[in-house]
Amino acid sequence: MKKIVSLVCFICLVLFSTQVFSQSITFAVLSDTHYSVSEKNKTWKQFAFARKTLPQLLKKLSHDPGIDFVVFPGDLFMDPLASALDPLKTLIDTHLKKPYFVIPGNHDRPTKDQINEKMQVFSLMDFVKTFKGHPYPDGVTSYWSLDYNGYHLIGLDSTKDEPLSGRVSRAQVAWLREDLKKNRDKFTIIFVHHGLDLFCTKLPMERGYTIDNYREVQKIIKNNPQVKFVVTGHYHFSAVRVKDEVYHLTMPTLVTYPLKYAVFHVEQNRVLYQTIKTGTKDQRAKAANGLVEEPYWRKKFKQDADLIRFFEGIDSLTFQPRP
């Protein structure tokens, strides 16, 4: 009798495990929204357009039965102005009726200069406290992990009190090692604002877009095969790199050409990635014109067409995660 009971329990366990790991998840990524209360469009950054588009997009995602949740991988704000913190939180909560998870970007915490200039800014802890439950469980720690439908999601904080570059702190590195150790059997996705790999090595901008200790974090990921891919923001264009069989994907934005967001459909043995345009053809043309008029970018590309193609990035990708 005991053998029969044990056999039944084993079969139930196998069936349950198969059911969990046969599940898929689909999520949207809205990176670098750069929300401002009243900022107008400035050359390549279409602040006013994004402010108008964001609530419409959130409503669209809310009514899409295929979307499980939404991720904001940093730079939710144009600048960490105290006057924008609650309005954006209210806007998201009003229009988005799906679970959503955030991580901070370099624009989501004040720099030393902004503090010295006595700007009315919010702190990193204000950001975390405001977005408590999304998914910050305690409203204190600026990084997180959670399980969703059999998948393990990790959100890292790569910010520091400088305007562009980032770093994963020593305490966070130790936490990451421990979290991955506890979840070795779970398909894991990491979200982080700054790059954990080099997406544009031909341009001198690279060091400001990766985290200072990216090689250390890469090594941790390499030694944890349950980490299947990494999603980053910060660059404002869609691109992919593969390091140690791990796919690193950087996201487009609603703010700069070509005005896009991304959707991932994830299964155990397959990942589908797609970018989706927002706005009209005329609005995208305006964003493109602003891009080629930006002095910073004009210096880095000999031809306008090369710059446009660079920012258009990839439209879609299907890949098999490492075993």
List keywords for this structure.
10 helices, alpha/beta, 6-stranded mixed β-sheet, 323 residues, Purple Acid Phosphatase, chain A, domain 2, 34% helix
In short:
The chain is of the alpha/beta class.
What this model shows, in words?
There is one protein chain. The chain is of the alpha/beta class. It has one domain: 4-Layer Sandwich (Purple Acid Phosphatase, chain A, domain 2). The protein is 34% helix and 20% strand. It is built from ten helices and twelve strands. It has helices spanning 2-21, 47-62, 82-95, 112-116, 124-130, 170-182, 214-222, 281-293, 295-298, 304-312, and strands spanning 25-29, 69-73, 100-103, 144-148, 151-155, 187-192, 227-232, 239-243, 246-250, 260-267, 270-277, 316-319. Strands 3-2-1-10-11-12 form a six-stranded mixed sheet, with no helix packed on it. It is globular and about 50 Å long. The two termini are 39 Å apart. The model is unreliable at 1-22 (pLDDT under 50).
